[in-house]
Each structure stands twice: as structure tokens, then as C-alpha cells.
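Subject: Sanity check before I submit

Could someone independently write out the C-alpha cells for this chain? I want to compare against mine line by line before I put it in a report. The sequence has 177 residues.
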Amino acid sequence: DENMWVTIKLWTDYGAVLSKSLVLIERNSFRIELADLFDLFETGQYVTGWLEIVADRPGLAGNVELRLNDQNMTQLPLQVLNRKEFLFGHVAEGFGIETGLALVNPGASDVDVEMEVYNTEGELTGTSQFVIPAESHVSQLLSELVPELGEQVGGYIKLFSSDDIVGIELFYKQDLE
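---
Independent answer below. Compare away.
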């Protein structure tokens, strides 16, 4: 059998875990809105959380699209490797731009995180320490995680965790356009 069984879980910030299993036919694509997949109805509120996608064998490739409104969209590749160290290659804080980080702890234990922010000369400009609870995530602006940072365009972020996590970096215009 060349088909792949895939389970998609939506771990919401409200404590609910929604789960759907489906079969993907080899060499075919699949596209569906989360609202349709999980029978979510318009309530006027955002559903926040994180996705876990598990396949019964290797070979799943794809991306996830995130949309804030009709004008803003980004695509992210499916993350396949958890790790303990990250290097995010740019900082954009100021002049109407903000950096956002989304970090997921899919594990059964809390994870300690240390973050260091450097400028373009390699000088440390801010640090932060925080915990990501088990089976949870942190999605915040860099200015929320490192309040003393101030305006900085350029540089990089180093992140170290006590156990494997998944992380992405996103950039936003403050007016969300």
C-alpha cells in the first residue's frame, strides 16, 4: 500500500485537542482549511494554538499557510526536526517592523529556554529566560520576550532549550499590512 495515514492535531490554547486522521494518496497533493477540517464555526474570536502532524511513514512534505486577514499571508514548511539550539538570522525591531517568535514544546515535560539577541557587530543587546510548558507553545513578539531590547534592525537571535522544541521566526509590520 503506497498511501500514507496522517493524523493532524490542533492543540488549542484553551486546552482542547482536536484530531483528524486521513489517508493521503501517493503523489497527490492535499489542501484544506483548518476550519473545514475540524468543523470550526465563525465565532468572532481567533482560535490559537499549534498543529501536530504525524504520518505513519517517512515521506510527507508540504507547507502550512498562515493568514491574519485577506492582506497578510505567509507559508511555512512542515517542521520535521526538533532541536535544542536555534539561530534566527535577523532582527527587525523598529521603523514600523516587529519580529515574532513561535516556539512549540511537543514534549511531555516543561522546557527551559535561554535567548540571546545580538546586533550586527556581534554585541549582546538583550537576553531572556522563560519556560515553555509541556505540550504547549509560546508565540510572542521579540519586544515582549526581551523588553529592554529597544529598536534594532539587523543582528541575530540565539536560542538554547533544555529539551527539543520547534521554532520559527516571523516579521510583521506594526499596522499589519
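---
OP: Matches mine. For the report I'm noting this point. The CA atoms of residues 103 and 167 lie 4 Å apart.
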